[in-house]
Amino acid sequence: MSLQRKHKLILTRPKEPEFVTAQRVRPTRVKSSAELEEEMMAKIPKFKARPLNKKILEVPTLPALPKSTTQLPECKEFHLQTMARANQNAETSTVASIESTQVHGVLSVITR
């Protein structure tokens, strides 16, 4: 019985393991929308207006330019040669077709 009294039962208490990687990694922290907006505003360059040049606002004292009247262009009638060419092509094509039929007619007579 003396052996049993020496070994007293103890309840174990759970512990979080302490890994080495937990010490190396930086903690992650999510920035709020206000902090993000503040950072963006800090990145934007500040606007600074340049001084106004007074000479720009002064009205120039130039003499008024005289208005010249423009002349309207004269319209010329077109003289296109398309109809003349069409008639000429029609004449040559009829002459060529008449000649070809005569040649074919002669050839057909010779081959018989």
From TrEMBL:
PANTHER family: TARGETING PROTEIN FOR XKLP2. This is TPX2 central domain-containing protein. Residues 10-97 form the TPX2 central domain. GO terms for biological process: regulation of mitotic spindle organization. The lineage of its organism: Eukaryota, Viridiplantae, Streptophyta, Embryophyta, Tracheophyta. One of its GO terms (cellular component) is spindle. InterPro entries: TPX2_central_dom, TPX2_fam.
